[in-house]
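User: My instructor asked us to take a sequence, write out its structure as tokens, and then describe one feature of it. I'm not sure where to start. Here is the sequence I was given:
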Amino acid sequence: MSKGQNKVKALVTIAMLSSIAYVLMLVNFPIPPFPNFLKIDFSDLPALIGALIFGPMAGIIIELLKNVLDYFMTGSETGVPVGHFANFVSGLLFILPTYYIYNKMKTKKGMTIALIVSSLIMSTIMSVLNYYVLIPAYTFFLNWPAMGATEMRQYIVAGILPFNLIKGLAMSIVFMLLFTKMGTWLKKQASYNEYKVRKVV
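Assistant: Let's start with the prediction itself. The structure tokens for your sequence are:
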């Protein structure tokens, strides 16, 4: 397969994974007792598959495209893509550490460790981001009453942090089920693309 054909194959696959991620983003659901706007979806999983096959940039592109598609197709209650920005960053915090950790330990155990660590990283950083950026942005654009520092910390500790931990756990479980079936194929695809890159270089 020529360099041009490899590039076309990669672009087509990334576009397909982006479309799947967008559809999965629409299939979301809340988890009681968390607020209804905190919803779980599995749209980060196609981005993780793309990253494992084509490298981290593919995962970033898929995360970006799914959020751009969703913003233009469904809009945002704030008028600006605050929620989409949060989804994009959250996705990167999940898929990128998973990619890099797994590439150090290319085993099923390594993937399990990578997913657990990534879930913890995502949950921690998203809590900080919510405190300093996202909640103030929602408050501003939706004209909500401003929270005090203590109230905001309680809201994050009782709501945002455990929700993201549960979300990370749910995505990890689903991905491990997929990885059990697709792990060998993913390794072959990643090795093939790595070989082609080395050959071109």
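For the description part of your assignment, you could build on this observation: Residues 197-201 have pLDDT under 50 and may be disordered. Try explaining in your own words what that tells you about the chain.
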